[in-house]
Design goal:
Shape: globular
Largest sheet: 5 strands, parallel
CATH architecture: 3-Layer(aba) Sandwich
Order of helices and strands: EHEHEEHEH
CATH class: Alpha Beta
CATH topology: Rossmann fold
Number of domains: 1
Distance between the termini: 44 Å
Number of helices: 4
Structural class: alpha/beta
Helix content: 25-40%
Strand content: 15-25%
Radius of gyration: 15 Å
Length: about 150
């Protein structure tokens, strides 16, 4: 099975790690996981975004630590779809924040006579305060990468 995920991965946090782990779980021991990392104009962010190579290196380090590195394909994505419209993928892992993108992808795939992706939605990973962990919250010094509140 070939599973895809995508995002900015600005600060690799527990939410990202769970998303990545779920993708590898679904891909199985012989599958592949495509990790699309945003680059270029798609990054219309109101917060500081680390350089692409820094973000990719953090992902690679995590993949190596988890033993996922041999099954991973990491590529830049320049729009919210990446190669998912035409690519040979079986499933996409999304959060509540990105499920609409996955539904749009499937509409476009069907219009292009491609098999729709199995959409696997995982819940937000919550910080101690029961709000989602996010890079923005980490950059704002509200929480750390694990969701622990700074006092």
């Amino acid at each position: 099975m070939i599973v895809c995920i995508g995002g900015t991965f600005n600060i690799l946090h527990n939410g990202h790690k769970i998303l990545i782990s779920k993708a590898f779980e679904k891909a199985g021991k012989t599958g592949k996981v495509f990790i699309g990392v945003t680059k270029g104009e798609v990054l219309q962010s109101k917060i500081y975004v680390k350089p692409y190579n820094e973000r990719v290196n953090a992902i690679k380090k995590y993949l190596l630590k988890q033993g996922y590195d041999k099954q991973a394909i990491i590529k830049p994505i320049l729009d919210k779809y990446g190669p998912t419209i035409d690519g040979e993928f079986d499933a996409i892992i999304v959060s509540p924040e990105t499920i609409k993108n996955a539904e749009e992808i499937n509409k476009k795939r069907i219009a292009n006579k491609k098999k729709p992706l199995k959409i696997i939605k995982i819940p937000f990973v919550l910080a101690e305060d029961k709000k989602p962990i996010s890079s923005t919250r980490i950059l704002n010094k509200e929480i750390d990468n694990n969701g622990k509140i700074f006092h």
